[in-house]
Amino acid sequence: MNDSLEVAQDSLQAAASQTVSNGYPERIQEMLVNALGESMTGILYAVITILALMVLYRISKNLVIRAMKEKHRSDAQVLQFTTMWKYAFLLTGIVFVIVSMSGSLAAMGLTVAFLGMVLGWSLQRPVTGVAAWLMVMIKRPFKIGDRIIIMGVRGDVLDISPTHVLLGEVGGTVGGEESSNRGILIPNAVLFDQMVINYAVSKETKYILDEVPVRVSYDSDYQLAESTLIACARESTKEIVEELGREPEVRAEFFDSGVLMRLRYQSIAVERQKISTAIVAKIVNAFSNSDRLGFAYPHSAVEYKISEEASLPPVFRYVPLEPGNQGDSK
User: Fold this and answer.
1) What is residue 146's DSSP assignment?
2) What residues are paired with 221 via a beta bridge?
3) Interior CA angle at 74 toward 71 and 80, to 5°?
4) Strands 207-217 and 258-268
């Protein structure tokens, strides 16, 4: 039986080699050119190439996503890599289509050189934007979901395309760092010229240092005020303290009306406003419930002091006259 299988395999190989040697692919191409014409044949080859690349892209994309999920990659990392994968297949498809329609590598080289000259000359900013996009994809100074500041604009990264970075604006219409639900498109080309501030450069450093300044009056109990502030911050950032092992702390300095106590703690970048508001509410309640704590504020105070002695100068004091001298005073 094994001999019969070997004979069959030899027969198939011989038939395949004979087919190739007989020039079947060239004959098929010649038949298509005679039937459809050279231009239509090139278009047919291009369509077949596009369909094959689309099928290959879908299969490879699913395999890549599955492999990244097994390695516990974040959704932002998966989206970033699949975006690069998509544009890589798009570029490959363009090259294959040009080859299919031109019919030779030499023609493709001339076409690509001409297109490259035109793009480099007339589309400098978009080409620079694509280069900046490649830099972001490779170096990853920020990713989708990070809160960054570009050109003085603060926002959360929603999308990174070859031409623009889409930010969800933070602030803008309101004070503080709450989302305004407005989208801002930042051209990628400015990434080479502008400074970019990332609130959290990685998952391990997603926390930032924040502070709540509290002005405490001079007649307040300093030790009680310090312990109260730390307790309020610890209560609002309990999970962060347990993860990092860093307790809130107080830094103090004098100012005109009292002591300025800066309560510093680790906070989540995208929830900074929410956490600071919760801490402020706890501090106000704690100060309201204590007679030994008070807020300092600029004001003027007048104090009255009761004294048995006359407060007027001696020349204005009243001196009673003697009875014998009353007539002389008239």
Assistant:
1) -
2) none
3) 105
4) antiparallel
pLDDT score for 203: 58
Q: Which two tokens stand for residue 124?
A: 């400098």
Nearest residue to 49 (alpha-carbon basis) of 106, 7, 2, 108: 108
Choices 2.30.30.60, 3.40.50.300, 3.30.590.10, 3.40.50.1970: CATH for 141-198 = 2.30.30.60
- Domain 207-288 indexed as CATH 3.30.70.100: yes
Give the global pTM. Answer: 0.58
The DSSP bridge partners found for residue 197 are 149
Domain boundaries, the chain: 18-122, 141-198, 207-288
* CA separation for the pair 147, 240 (Å, rounded): 19
Helix, strand, coil share of the chain (percent; to 5): 55, 20, 25
Question: What's the rounded Cα separation, in Å, for the pair 129 and 187?
Answer: 7
- pLDDT tens for 29-50 read 555 555 555 556 666 666 777 7
Alpha carbon separation from 294 to 164, 178, 230, 262 (Å, rounded): 51, 30, 16, 15
Copy the structure tokens of residue 279. Answer: 């801490």
